[in-house]
Each structure stands twice: as structure tokens, then as C-alpha cells.
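[audit] Reproducing an earlier prediction to check determinism. Same input, same settings, fresh worker. If the C-alpha cells differ from the archived copy the diff job will pick it up downstream; this log only records the rerun itself.
[audit] input (341 residues):
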Amino acid sequence: MTPRLARTATFALAAAALLSLLPAGKAAAHEGPEDEVAEITEQIEARGESADLLMQRAIEYRVMGKNAEAAKDLERATKLQPELLLAQRELGRVYFALGKTNEALDTVTHALRSKSEQEPELAALRLLRAEFYRARGENKKALEDANEGIRLHKGTVEWYLIRSDLHERLKLPRERIAGVEEGLRETGGGVLEVELVEAMLDDGQNEKALLKIEEELKASRLQSSWLIRRARARQGLGQKESAKADLDAALEEISHRLNPSSPDPMLLADKGLAHELLGQKDEAKKYYELARDAGGEDWVKEKIKQLKADEEARAKEKEKELEKSWDPEKHKEKKSRDKSK
């Protein structure tokens, strides 16, 4: 899997939606999740439970990492107001965070059966279920949901990234490029420009990718990521020396930007990729593992698995070569000579 910005629907997006339920000025006055939980609990005790208050408290529980408590509040909210699709969506998300994949899928699927005409909310449910299917390796089902969600609502950049990832997993390069281009037309999201270059590189469209990369390099102060992309394009075009020069320059820039006490996982991952493209597999694995330990994205873990698999395959190939070159007669002669000594 190629490096890219995070593809999963983030908690930040969910929290932003839920925070819109708070009374005006509430978020600004927020001192901390514990204080907020105490205040909302007082309101519930004084006024009684409501779906809105329970959802507000669930937000704070999630910020605190208390997903079990958030689930209880969201379960109660969905019983009090079954038509509230946002509560069902967030309940599915919390179940998934708790490892309750079946419950997460059941919750979101139940919500999708509603007669709601809220297309943006139905689209968000589709994309959430796509994430669940993707995590289970059911990529075809995930892609069906992603396509339907984007058909219902075309304005969310993150969803095009999720779909692009699914196209890549399913080895559908042309569909991936077309899908990202659609996202650019519909949203104008700059992150999709990066994704388009990645898609072109993965499909071997190196000359097209190179034109876009050169534009970005002219406009970028921090260039290491784009230098690595240009190196990939140049390698694809057989320009080995210039590709190596780009990778060396990228590694030099990264070494100046890395903070040893608190390294950026994306910089560590880029360093791993640069070493990998240079054929330095051990160094690549080292920096991918550091990126993973620093909280890097899922593609980093897949890179580590891939490198380990490649290493095991090389070891097996070496064993086969040794077996082929093994001559028992020569071994007997050597053994006999050793004994005579």
C-alpha cells in the first residue's frame, strides 16, 4: 500500500458533527472532559434523560477513551429517539472501537433500513459501514457502500480517499484514478491532488505524475515527500541516477526535520520508504517499525509485513539454491580427506 494521508473517517469529523448539538458557547467554555461529564450528568439528574444530553456526554466519554461508557449513553439515546441516525452511527463507531464488529455492523445496517430522507446522514452511514467491511477484508462490499455513499452525497473529501484505498486494494487502478478525479471536481480538496499523483504512480503513469510533481516541488518549501514521489516516477522511467539523487536529498532533509525526542511518524515512514526505494531493506524495515511505534498509519504496518514476507521468500530461495548445489559425492570426499588428516 502506498503512503498517503489517513483514509479512515476520523473521530475529529464525528466529534465536529456531535459538537454542533451543544448549546451556543458551550464548546468555547469547555474546560475539560471530566468537568463536562460532571456538568452534563447534573443536567440529566435535574431535567431527566434526553437523547441530546446523552450524546453530549458520549462525546466527552470518547475524548476520555471511555468507549464502554459512551456506548451505554448512545444505546440509551437510540432508544429514546430511534429516528436519530447520528446517534446510531456513533453507536456503531463506538462498538467498532470496542472490538464488537458484529454489533457495529448490525447497528449501522439497522439505521440504513430507516425511511429517512436525510441523504447526507445515510451517506455517512454507508461510508462508516464501508470502513467496517474494509477492516474485515470484505473490500468488494466496502466498495459498494463507498460508491453508494458518494452517490448520495459528493461533498466529503475523506470519502474519496476511503474509496481510493478500496480501489487500490482491489487492484482497480483506472477506477481509482477516475474516482479521485471526480473527488477533485466535486470538492476541490487539495489532499486529493496528492492522492491522484499516488494513484498515477501506482498505475505506472509516471510521465503524467512527473508533471504534477514538478509543479508541487516548485511551490513547496518542505520537499522530501515530493522528492520521494519524483524518485518513484524517475525509477519507473528508468532514470536511476536522478532517482537516487532525489532520494538522497529527501533523506538529508528528513534528517534535519526529525526531532529525536518526539519523531513525526510520517517523517519516519517517508525515511523508511526512501530507504526501501534505494534497496536498503533493513534500514527501511527499521524506520517503518519506528513509524509504527510512533503511531503511524496502517499502510506502514502493511509495509513491514511485506518486507518480512520478502525476507522469508529470499531465505527460502537461498535454501533451494544450496540444495541444488549440494553434491553428496564431493561431501564424502571432503569428509574422507578430513579423517585422513
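[audit] rerun output stored. Observation attached for the diff report: The chain has a mean pLDDT of 89.
[audit] end
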